[in-house]
Amino acid sequence: DHRIGRDHTPSKHEAITRAVRQARAEAEVMASAAGGTLGPVIMLQSRGGSTRSLGGGALYAARSAPSSAPVESGLLTITGSVEITFAFEPN
């Protein structure tokens, strides 16, 4: 459920999970290209990500208006961003 005003924690966790998987995949490609493999994670940090609503001006105005006011639908974007440092193990 991605409606405005709802708890988006599960969606944020999914976005962070995807960000970690993507970061690992990219790091594996770089390590392989450099002639090695990834070692253990040395540092792992969430960079916050964001929750953004497009069309939010109309939604904000509708929240402050009487309940019979029409509300435009909008797009809610939830992102996750991580920074991971892996050890590099040469072959």
Given helix and strand content, the structural type is alpha+beta
Approximately how much beta-strand content do the residues carry? 25-35%
Task: Count every beta strand, where a strand is a DSSP E run of 2 or more residues.
Answer: 4
Number of helices, where a helix is a run of at least 4 consecutive DSSP H or I residues: 2
Distance between the terminal alpha carbons, to the nearest Å? 46 Å
**What is the C-alpha radius of gyration, as a whole number of Å?**
20 Å
Biggest sheet character: 2 strands, antiparallel
The main sheet orders its strands as 1-4
Percent in helix:
25-40%
The topology string of helices and strands comes to HEEHEE
Overall mean pLDDT: 77
Q: What is the approximate shape? A: elongated
In short:
The protein is of the alpha+beta class and about 90 residues long. Helix content is about 35%, strand content about 35%.
Could you walk me through the main structural features you see in this protein, from its secondary elements to its overall organization?
By secondary structure, this protein is an alpha+beta fold. It is built from 2 helices and 4 strands. Strands 1-4 form a two-stranded antiparallel sheet. The protein has helices spanning 9-33, 56-64, and strands at residues 36-46, 50-54, 75-79, 82-90. The termini are far apart. The model is unreliable at 56-67 (pLDDT under 50). It is elongated and about 55 Å long.
